[in-house]
Amino acid sequence: MEPSAHSSPPPPARPSAQPSSPSPPDSPWRVRDFRVLFSATALSQLGTNVGYVAVPLVAVTALDARPGQVGALATLSMVAFLLIGLPAGAWVDRMRHRRVLIAADLVRGSLYATVPLAWWLECLTLGQLYAVVFLNGCATVFFDVASQSVLPQLVGRNGLVRANAAMVTLMAAGNVAGRGAGGGLMVLLTAPVAVVCTAVSYMASALRLTAVRGAGGHGSVGRGAPSGRPRLGPQIAEGLRHVLGNKELRALALTASLSNLGSQIVNTMLPVLFVSELGLTAGALGLFWAVGGVGMLLGARCARVIAARVGFGRALGLAGLCLAPAGLLVPLVDRGPWLYVAGAGWLLALFKTGMDNVLGVSLRQGMTSDALLGRMNATFRFLLSGALAIGAAVSGLVGEVGSVRGAVWTGGVIMALAFLPVFLSPVRKRRELPGPARQAGAAPAK
């Protein structure tokens, strides 16, 4: 669920001229390498979502973790984006994207394989879980930045909306299948054994990615930047100026960051609330998360149709105004009918997230030249995933010092208000993606 307040720096510098990538057909499904990337991402998403359910439940059920320790586990899984998120964008712009994607999946699979092994040897500790999720987060930084940066090269600017809709739909389907399966595996097996599925899925994804062509044609996955080795600091600063110096990109980043902050505060405490306080099963938790995946799936599928009718910006604004307040229903979760009320609120809130992911990601990719894609994506991931790390820490702190229910209410309120930056910005008036002239360079400051 990429699947983001800041003062305005100086206007963005224009990057050096660079020829645009050749334009493949409008339909991304005609591009072989996109189909390979999609199928590999499907395997990766399955593993990620099973692990999303399994790892905190390993901590709660096998290691008797307290709310603060569960919060620390979630924080460490995201803190890598704060530590290496910005330089990762510049590094990815210099590297072969295919190699980055394969290496990241191999590292993630190997890390998760150590959890069931340590459990079997009766030496599993919270310290090991902390190390696994932190190092997994480091690998995920590179995977996510490379995946979003390579997409415009594979499908061309005309295919971005369809390609992003497909990817967000895949993420949502992964939430449904992966988290639902994760909850079921907790019931049938044990949480540490279920982590095996995560390791196997990442390894299978790495194997599938070897089928991506490394050179030639618009399907190649080559370097994201021109030759030469400019200094890292100026490159990072250029990416920051591009995002934070543009009113539209800044609003998209702020709204997405607030959404991530609120949802992470909620998600971090849900395992504790469901299993420890309400006495519900791990299967019920997995099903609740899967309902959110259904909402994201529906939002992703409807995004392009709604945007075609009312415009990109208006679709984002109306979705926020009508659906974001549903986040206030989530903290009402309890046994009995209130579980269904909270589930409905979660579905509607994640419907908005699905729309935001398709339209917001397409807009920011459309406003960015090929030479800046890695750094733009890294800047967004730094802000968005930084919000996830902060949200996990806040959730653990409020849950430990105050109450678990109080933490969930904090997250629900933030989710309900997160739409305001985009709603009050020029994004709300934008009807379509930027044209070719805008794509030739960095988006001017508004």
Question: What's the structural blueprint in terms of helices and strands?
Answer:
Blueprint: H1 32-62, H2 67-94, H3 97-120, H4 126-155, H5 160-188, H6 191-209, H7 232-244, H8 247-277, H9 282-310, H10 312-323, H11 337-366, H12 373-401, H13 404-417, H14 420-423, H15 436-439
Helix pairs in contact: 1-4, 1-5, 1-6, 2-4, 2-7, 2-12, 3-4, 3-6, 4-12, 5-9, 5-11, 7-12, 8-11, 8-12, 8-13, 9-10, 9-11, 10-11, 12-13
Features:
single chain; 446 residues; mainly alpha; Growth Hormone, Chain: A; 73% helix; 0% strand; disordered N terminus; disordered C terminus
Plain-language structure description:
- With 446 residues, this protein is mainly alpha-helical.
- It has one domain (28-212, 233-439): MFS general substrate transporter like domains (Growth Hormone, Chain: A).
- The protein is 73% helix and 0% strand.
- It is built from 15 helices and no strands.
- The chain starts with 31 loop residues before the first helix and ends in a 7-residue tail after the last helix.
- The model is unreliable at 1-24, 214-227 and 436-446 (pLDDT under 50).
